[in-house]
Amino acid sequence: MKVGQLRWREGDGWDFAPGGAPPSLVLYFGSAGNIESARAPAALAERYPGALVFGCSTAAGIAGDAIDEGGIVGVACRFDSTPLRLAEAEVPDSGHSASAGRQLGEALRGEGLAGVLVLSDGTGVNGSALTAALTESLGGRVPVSGGLAGDGARFLRTLVGAGGSARPGRAAAVGFYGGAVRMAHASAGGWDPFGPRRRITRSSGNVLHQLDGRSALALYELYLGEEAAGLPGTALLFPLLVWNPEAPGDTLVRTVLSIDREAGSMTFAGDIPEGWSAQLMRGTFDRLVDGAARAAQVARESLTEAGGGDALGVIVSCVGRHMLLGQRTAEELHAVTAALGPGVTQVGFYSHGEIAPRRRLEPAMLQNQTMAVSLIAEAA
Q1: Which of 35, 146, 337, 355 is deepest in the core (most CB within 10 A)?
Q2: Angle at 337 between CA 119 and CA 83, to 5 degrees
């Protein structure tokens, strides 16, 4: 397996990966504006005609341990013994999330499927419904990872690229096949709950209407104070912890995608089950950085146990972490690089939701406000 980095800069154009054997897979991440300005999908498909071209929009790309907010980052990967397959599905609105997940699973399901990397529109999707349907369609045993495309705190328009085009309202996934591929995943948060615990008294799917019988939006605005004017973006700094009262140790974190001031409701990236409990969260610099390093270390150890050699590291971090860390975001990436050690080429993006198993040997699920690390290699 060979991995070469590539980059696009406005005014400079493409800095393609060095020559050699043609790549099997090309991944790219950049802002929606830059992807369209650079004609990224078409340009990459033309440059690498035999490769699967796959990517999405983000407020900032990740290349190694550096953040790239002004261009497009990517990698060109050559797999020696691993067949690949690319599938796509339309997600015109949240109600089509589960059907899109099933469509992807049915298209990729097949003998020797060893893992799936999935990217989805990040504004009009129920990420938990899409992920659950995808994993169920694959039988629940195939590792799945990826994330929801981003556009920073704007939550207006995201793109997913498959082949020679990128557009909103799409989900796409790559399947990895055969006995040579090795995949390892890990994720961690670093946020702490605060304030009163409340009951979710009215919700529908990923739309939250009421907490303790009161407007959920009104309660968020109460806590945010002057920052409430910046909703939904400012809610990224205060994610919601949710859990089933019958299983209080099994918690999920959810991030706001949009708000409806007239209805007093908030739409989250994943389901907010009625009858569950909820509590606001906030982060600290050291806890977030430590969480990212822990995720990288677990993934590296898992890959080593599986017998993987040099690897591609796909890093998906929540845009809320980027907002809170600010200029210290680089510390998070440095911690990941140090924990992964040599032999891993890193690329990634800041997402509206991370898709990864929460624990080893568990099915993938939508997570929010996490750092998710996926390592892909071939047998050493």
Answers
A1: 355
A2: 45
Q: Are residues 276 and 320 in the same domain?
A: no
Tell me, yes or no, whether 241 and 373 share the same domain: no
What the block records as the tokens of 194 is: 């605060």
49 and 74 housed in the same domain = yes
When divided into structural domains, the chain yields a total of: 2
Total residues found in the chain within this entry: 380
Same domain, residue pair 199 and 268:
yes
In this structure, what are the phi and psi dihedrals at residue 251, rounded to the nearest 5 degrees?
A: -110, 160
Q: Helices (H) and strands (E) in the chain — how many of each?
A: 8, 27
Q: Are residues 241 and 290 in the same domain?
A: no
Q: Which of 283, 307, 340 is the last residue of a domain?
A: 283
Domain range holding 220? Answer: 191-283
